[in-house]
Design a protein that fits this description.
Blueprint lengths: L1 E4 L5 E5 L2 E4 L2 E4 L4 H8 L7 E7 L3 E8 L7 E7 L1 E8 L10 E7 L4 E5 L3 E7 L4 E7 L8 E3 L22 E2 L1 H4 L4 H7 L5
Parallel strand pairs: 6-14
Antiparallel strand pairs: 1-2, 2-10, 3-4, 5-12, 6-11, 6-13, 7-10, 7-12, 8-9, 8-11
């Protein structure tokens, strides 16, 4: 497994081989030892989640303020997504910057997203399935969101990739505060 930093401290692209034959494919999608060697992070899995989305669904921008932090390991199991990671740490040199990565179910790619970063994605196909490994469990009192269309962040969601379909966003995400509002509330990672 190879891990490559992506220009925002705490974001790495992980790439591992995919072995295919007439039966299908096999891949190792997470190896804690490789993560530790490449990043120095001892990623201890505390929770695993799976989500499935239809084409045009945007989920996020989500983050956790859990006291122990919450890193994520994200991979696409089937379908494809445009994955987005936003630096929402006010004291970071890349505050308000974001990176996008295409993740596809038939490729050996995953993202390691460090604690204190925002995460979201656009599903590019129907029945797109994403698996998340979390370094701390979900705790509702520490979970927050930022509007995925916040003009201050100005994420290019590459909506051309969904062929003119309208996007679907949950009411919670659509009504989420902006980055500036979260900053004013003191609800951003420090």
């Amino acid at each position: 497994m190879e891990l490559t930093p992506l220009g925002i401290e705490g974001v790495w692209l992980a790439e591992s081989p995919v072995w295919s034959d007439d039966r299908g494919f096999f891949r190792e999608w997470f190896k804690s030892g490789d993560v530790k060697v490449a990043t120095g992070i001892d990623f201890s899995i505390q929770q695993a989640n799976i989500s499935q989305s239809q084409r045009g669904v945007i989920r996020g921008i989500h983050y956790s303020l859990a006291p122990q932090g919450q890193a994520k390991w994200v991979t696409c199991v089937s379908g494809s997504i445009l994955d987005v990671v936003v630096d929402i740490r006010p004291n970071s040199p890349t505050f308000k910057k974001y990176v996008t990565v295409d993740l596809r179910g038939n490729e050996g790619r995953a993202l390691l997203i460090g604690a204190g970063l925002g995460h979201g994605f656009l599903a590019l196909e129907d029945k797109t399935t994403i698996s998340y490994l979390l370094s701390s469990p979900y705790s509702p009192e520490f979970e927050f969101e930022i509007q995925p269309t916040d003009p201050e962040i100005n994420i290019d969601w590459h909506l051309n990739l969904i062929g003119g379909l309208g996007v679907v966003v949950s009411p919670k995400d659509a009504q989420a505060p902006t980055l500036a509002e979260r900053l004013a509330e003191g609800k951003l990672p420090q």
